[in-house]
Prior knowledge:
This protein is an alpha/beta fold. The chain has helices at residues 2-25, 57-68, 80-88, 102-105, 150-158, 169-177, 193-198, 228-245, 247-259, and strands at residues 36-40, 73-77, 94-98, 108-123, 139-143, 162-166, 183-187, 206-222.
Amino acid sequence: MKKYVVIKLILLCFSFSSYFGVAEQHERPLPLDTDTLLTTGGSYYPYVDKKAHDGGWSVSLVKAIFRHMDTPIYIDNLPWQRGYKWALEGKYKGTFPYVYTEERAKLFVYSRQINSIPVRIYTSKDMVVNSLSDITGARLCLPYGHSLSKEQSEFIEKYKIAVQRAVNAGGCIAQVSKGWGEIGFTNGYLQGDHNSELFNVLDEVNIIDIPVATIPLYYIVSRELEDAQAHIDEFNAALEFIERSGERLLIDDHYESITTNR
């Protein structure tokens, strides 16, 4: 009898061990059949950041909007190019946050603005920039696949800037820090002690605290979906609701307090 009890306890322990092992591998629950699938990218502070409250500024806003649409959602964090492709193909209902480009607008229906990016430039440690006229004719590094907004394109044209490419944002920072390029674009929120802890690589360059542009960010839905415009209309109405109710203001205040280190 004692032997039977011991064996039963051992098997019970193994079953609990297996359960918790699986639970640790799948800390996040899988989507339900009733969930609307959305996708966003990886780290894009402060808009998408797994370490931030609610997953980041844009994520928090989109969650609030869909709550008021009474629509349960599941947000997948995927590599940007893959998420974009699968949203375009309709595997995901929508994706965010994206800047507006004319080429992209042919493929996607855009929501009203959900966030905006304060754009700055960074330079090598040796380059002195007192005003934006000092970067006239400079070489700007852009990551492959980076889509320029209208505001960035106008900036490049105004200051007669030459564009060169690198594999990714880190590659551009390396080019500029070594003098192979002269400037790069960066999100203006990547400044301050809090942010430098997240992006130590930016210590290799100087971020110039002169506003270059403010670029709107949007939620977008593939034109391949039959209800694309109706879905965006519903999204916009819910966005307007959280603006009127003050819920958006609370979310914005929270993230602005973090990004400005108040």
